[in-house]
């Protein structure tokens, strides 16, 4: 604990500061560790400052709420690859991407953390906008771009709203995560892609 | 306030009790009013008991958490018709049902309340199971039954998992409610149904 408090002391004494980027990375790392081990309720400015050896004032300056800090920490920590692999086959690419997403939620411990973040966002507008800005919106845009390219190759119909497909695929997974009335599995991910492309009506 | 406290007094004096069903209905009514006017944070055992003129002990006995009470109050209060109209045309019935759901979320004030309930459920296991038991699971089953009947009429393919369709339709709407990166509208609901039935692949 004393060692962690050291940087704060140094700042106070004016004997040199850590570069802001380094402090910021340390704060995010500490917040991410608390988030994944103890859940979102542990991510308070108080505890993160103590854990990171940073001053609470610094945190107040940089983040509008502890929830917003938690969202950015999640984003910084999550190893998930945002790039959409583009093999030229949208069916294969969507299936791979969605299965990887379900694996992340169900096997890699991210599921409860994302669920808590989205949950807390419903009563924390700062967290809500941070989650969108740092996480969900960039992902939506990457998916839309990949599907627009597929449309250019003739793999998706011209009259289909590809942004709607994001909700029909990833949104369906979030639904099973947040309202777990039916299991979230990789085979569910595969079925989502198949139906979003082929439809449930009998083929005429 | 004094008038509302009256029934509690009567119980204490043993001069007759209100029937349990009546007390229960009054508590749910009070909780629903607090939920819709002030949000989920106002639904505490303390305030609901005071508002309903009931004893806090009664509330503790009947509900495992204030969140669980809020969920049941929402369910009791919401006027939405759960019955699936069955005209024999699944495309029309799904479209009507999903558009009505979006109207409820966007125009009738239920959206923020459901969002708060699902949000709070992520850190309240009692609320999570109450939401499922009282609300989401009965709705899922009604949708599944309607789609099974449509399958029997040859309107849905045999190899389609109709439970997955619930997530691909209602789940997509919940996604736009909870992570509002794109607008939730009746035309979105229509596009969801069209794509879930027809698919996004070019028709061969």
Automatic annotation (TrEMBL), chains A, B:
Keywords: DNA-binding, Transcription, Transcription regulation. It comes from the Bacteria. Residues 44-63 bind DNA. Residues 21-81 form the HTH tetR-type domain. InterPro entries: Homeodomain-like_sf (IPR009057), HTH-type_TetR-like_transc_reg (IPR050109), HTH_TetR (IPR001647), Tet_transcr_reg_TetR-rel_C_sf (IPR036271), TetR_C (IPR011075). PROSITE patterns: HTH_TETR_2. This is TetR/AcrR family transcriptional regulator C-terminal ligand-binding domain-containing protein.
């Amino acid at each position: 604990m004393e060692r962690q408090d050291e940087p704060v002391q140094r700042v106070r004494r004016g004997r040199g500061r850590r570069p802001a980027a380094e402090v910021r990375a340390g704060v995010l790392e500490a917040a991410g560790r608390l988030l994944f081990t103890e859940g979102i309720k542990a991510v308070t400015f108080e505890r993160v400052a103590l854990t990171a050896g940073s001053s609470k004032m610094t945190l107040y300056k940089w983040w509008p709420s502890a929830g917003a800090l938690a969202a950015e920490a999640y984003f910084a920590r999550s190893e998930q690859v945002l790039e959409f692999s583009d093999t030229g086959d949208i069916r294969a690419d969507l299936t791979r991407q969605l299965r990887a997403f379900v694996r992340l939620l169900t096997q890699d411990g991210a599921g409860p953390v994302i669920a808590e973040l989205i949950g807390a966002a419903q009563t924390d507008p700062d967290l809500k906008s941070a989650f969108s800005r740092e996480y969900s919106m960039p992902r939506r845009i990457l998916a839309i771009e990949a599907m627009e390219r597929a449309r250019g190759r003739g793999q998706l119909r011209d009259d289909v709203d590809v942004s709607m497909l994001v909700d029909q695929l990833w949104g369906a997974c979030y639904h099973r995560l947040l309202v777990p009335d039916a299991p979230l599995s990789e085979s569910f991910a595969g079925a989502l892609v198949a139906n979003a492309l082929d439809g449930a009506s009998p083929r005429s």
